[in-house]
Amino acid sequence: MLKYQNDEDYDIHALLEVIYLKWGYDFRGYSKASLTRRIFFFLQEERIDRIPDLQFRIVRDRGLFSRFIKDVTVNVTEMFRDPSFYRSVKKHIVPQLETYPHIKIWHAGCATGEEVYSLAMLLDQAGLLDRATIYATDINRSVLDRAKKGIYSDSHLSQYQQNFKDAGLNGDLLDYFEKGYDHVIVDSRLRKNIVFTEHDLVIDHVFGEMQLIFCRNVLIYFTRELQDKVIGLFTESLDFGGYLCLGIKESLDFFDGRAMFTAVDADHRLFQKTSNKGSSDKR
Amino acid sequence: MLISSDSDRFSRLVVVGTSWGGIDALKVLLKHINAPFTFSVVIVIHQERQKKSHLSKIFAEMVSFPVLEAEDKQQILPGNVYISTPNYHLLVEQDGTLSHTVDRPVNFCRPSVDVLFQTAADAFGKRVIAIVLTGANQDGANGSKWVKQRGGQVFVQDPKEAEAKVMPLATIANIDVDLIGSLSTLALTLNNLGRS
Ligand SMILES: C[S@@+](CC[C@H](N)C(=O)[O-])C[C@H]1O[C@@H](n2cnc3c(N)ncnc32)[C@H](O)[C@@H]1O
């Protein structure tokens, strides 16, 4: 029998069921503590008193549902988050990528794009950007629109410049951006091989033969069961010898198919697909 | 979110928040706790953002019980101590696991004590004991209120003894706390619980 601690938890349970039935987005496998927090922020934002009222309205109002997606997902990101992670990518993964004539890269859960442009700068300095096609996806359309525009407030600029250096890149971050009054704009050279598109990791399918997948700080929002399913999706989307890079609090330790991967740098969560055994060859 | 039998494994959930001066305070507190104990301890400490925190190792070497850096979706076990990771909020789930988010800082802090206290209170209500130690900001005061509202208890380090008084004082000003005491008094109180 299903038993929850608080009455609101029953309301949230019902809300997520209804959203799934009506709109086809499935938040039922998300970790509840963070999701609950976000839902209560959303109620405040929309001046809705109770979850059952939200449930009533969200069924009838597509606009409200769009804002729900926008506000309950956590889109906080930054340029070169964990600079030492990027140094590790440069050291362990770039040499392997150099052996391919063409490289396909997938950023799953790219939020507003800072991570995508960070890697693009690294690839540029390695001379690999021109042979790369980069797919940057997210469930949240509004952050994708901002990622596409590539315009960022300069309030974090000095920290990003420091991260850029700590990540081991040459020159200055501003070599890749045009400075505006209170913002910076990504150079078109960085964007030309990037395709931004909506993709839901819970509902949508395999994404092609990638040499490199970044999915950082997305799996923390999922329960272990859903994490397992999504890592399975990545496993199928990876070329043999391809790499999967996760966030610092994410790992393959509990993934059924972990034997298919070798940890290239366990501390920085860099994994290489080194075996096909155990993968379900469905494609 | 489900209450499983797993979540009944610890007698009480002790959540601790600290900031400036927290490392030294935690050393004293942990050293005074007698193992084995039946409760679990989850700690948020504000730290400089860095690649890797070695705090759990430092503490683990001092005591005979496990002190671990919190892993995502890790089951909270009795007799264990879990410590936050810099730059991630640490949350408690109703199934008795730990989880993380990189959501915006709260009180300029990530991890935030308020986030830990609130989610612990939501998940375990009366079984929660929140402890506020030394710190130079007000993080934890709102979370402590939440803990009280959900039926839990709040202990605070005696501000006279704390390296930074702001955090204990903010909590004392915000709610009726259940105990104000020195680190050894707080530990003693936990030891008495741990035996029952
Ligand atoms: C915290 S951000 C991570 C951004 C970046 N990867 C980083 O590490 O800085 C998490 C992103 O995952 C996205 N996300 C959440 N659920 C998703 C899903 N089911 N499919 C695709 N993206 C999802 C959110 O919209 C959000 O933009």
Task: Explain this structure.
The complex is a heterodimer of chains A (283) and B (196). Chain A has 283 residues and is an alpha/beta fold. In chain A, 41% of the residues lie in helices and 18% in strands. Chain A has eleven helices and ten strands. With 196 residues, chain B is α/β, with parallel strands linked by helices. Chain B has a single domain (5-195), classed as Methylesterase CheB, C-terminal domain (Rossmann fold, 3-Layer(aba) Sandwich), CATH 3.40.50.180. Chain B has helices at 22-31, 55-62, 113-124, 141-149, 166-174, 183-195, and strands at 13-18, 40-45, 67-69, 81-83, 89-92, 98-101, 128-132, 153-157, 179-181. Chain B has a seven-stranded parallel β-sheet, with helices on both faces. The complex binds S-adenosylmethionine (SAM). The site of S-adenosylmethionine has 22 residues of chain A, from loops.
The top level CATH class name of the largest domain in chain A: Alpha Beta
Helix content of chain A: 40-55%
At CATH's second level, what is the architecture of the largest domain in chain A?
A: 3-Layer(aba) Sandwich
Number of helices of chain B: 6
**Which strand-content bin applies to the residues of chain B?**
15-25%
Using only C-alpha atoms, the radius of gyration of chain B works out to 15 Å
Question: What does the secondary structure layout of this molecule look like, with pairings?
Answer:
The complex is a heterodimer of chains A (283) and B (196).
Chain A: H1 7-23, H2 32-46, H3 51-60, H4 62-72, H5 83-92, H6 94-97, E1 103-108, H7 114-125, E2 132-138, H8 141-149, E3 151-153, H9 157-166, E4 177-179, E5 183-186, H10 188-191, E6 194-198, E7 210-215, H11 224-237, E8 238-246, E9 261-265, E10 270-273
Parallel strand pairs in A: 1-2, 1-7, 2-6, 7-8
Antiparallel strand pairs in A: 3-5, 4-5, 8-10, 9-10
Chain B: E1 13-18, H1 22-31, E2 40-45, H2 55-62, E3 67-69, E4 81-83, E5 89-92, E6 98-101, H3 113-124, E7 128-132, H4 141-149, E8 153-157, H5 166-174, E9 179-181, H6 183-195
Parallel strand pairs in B: 1-2, 1-7, 2-4, 3-4, 7-8, 8-9
Antiparallel strand pairs in B: 5-6
